Amino acid sequence: MSIDFTAMYASHDAFRRDLERLAQAVAEGRAHTPGVRAGWANFTRQLHIHHTAEDAELWPRVRERLTGRPRDLALLDDMEAEHARIDPLLASVDTALTDRAPELPDLVKALTATLDDHLGHEEDSALPLMQDVLTAADWGAFTGRMRETQGLRGASVFVPWIVDGAGPADRERFFGSLPAPVRVLNRLFWEGSYRRKGLWAGVQDAF
């Protein structure tokens, strides 16, 4: 059974989008406004949940199926090492935002380049490997870990965050991968609540 990576690709796109917004805010001298700080806080939370679930539920399951495949095992080592390189950059950007440090633009550039390299590496190499060796149950365990960590309150932010600023085709593709009740909740309650939070306000209009 083929694994549907729609939500994975959509999450990656949302991470890239948020770092573009942060870079824009830094360039315009608005990195310390409440909306930008709220957007950054949500970005770091979403990335932490995403990477923690990968480290706990995804990579170990892939590794179990790669006995006798040293090249593929090395790829998993790369994934974990890339996660480890991202964490200190997140902390450095967070500190620079708080301190209004002059090195903030360079730190944002470094974080953007490092995360983008990792996401591209995962999309080009790790996702095809997962498609080859994982079962639908394996993938369900990973997505279940994500849902458990987010909870209903977290989902009410995660779902509209994914499509914040996305075009009609991308929105349709993402919502098509979700259960109908989630789509209804998002339409009736979540998008409006998310919009009122004002994440990245002044950088780019949501939706």
**What is the percent of helical residues?**
over 70%
* Average pLDDT, all residues: 96
What general outline do the C-alpha atoms trace? globular
Strand count, sense and barrel status of the largest sheet are:
none
Which consecutive residue ranges, at least 5 long each, have pLDDT under 50?
Answer: none
- Structural class per helix/strand content? mainly alpha
Brief account:
With 207 residues, the protein is an all-alpha fold. The protein is built from 7 helices and no strands. The chain has helices at 6-27, 34-64, 70-99, 104-133, 136-162, 168-176, 180-197.
Explain this structure to me?
By secondary structure, the chain is mostly helical. Helix content is 81%, strand content 0%. The protein contains seven helices and no strands. Helix 1 packs antiparallel against helix 2 (34-64), helix 1 (6-27) packs antiparallel against helix 4 (104-133) and helix 5 runs parallel beside helix 7 (180-197). The model has no long low-confidence stretch (mean pLDDT 96).
